[in-house]
Write a structure and sequence with these properties.
about 90 residues, mainly beta, Folate-binding fold, 4-stranded antiparallel beta sheet, two-stranded antiparallel ribbon, 2 helices, about 15% helix, globular, binds zinc ion, Sarcosine oxidase subunit delta, SoxD, SoxD_sf
């Protein structure tokens, strides 16, 4: 699998580190958030079968955080953008 880094161009998977689901958001109220929100944030993830946004780090390249939209059924990479642009 190759990821087209927006800064470096297409690179091999071994240059990147996977950091999980890019759609998960930390509860806004910190310690005041209900336990259920924290439990959902820490433990529960959707088991998607199709396009999904993932967070990747270009550790052996430009050190950029990337949001990679990948089809989990086919492993096809549909889109790559800087996490800064996605925020
Ligand atoms: Zn890069």
């Amino acid at each position: 699998m190759r990821i087209a880094c927006p800064h470096c161009g297409p690179r091999g998977l071994e240059e990147f580190l996977y950091h999980g689901d890019a759609t998960v958001r930390r509860p806004r109220d910190g310690g005041a958030a209900p336990t259920k929100e924290w439990t959902d944030y820490v433990y529960f993830r959707d088991n998607a079968n199709g396009p999904h946004d993932e967070l990747w780090y270009h550790s052996a390249g430009c050190h950029a955080w990337l949001v990679v939209r990948r089809d989990l059924a086919t492993h096809e990479i549909l889109h790559v953008k800087s996490a800064r642009d996605a925020a």
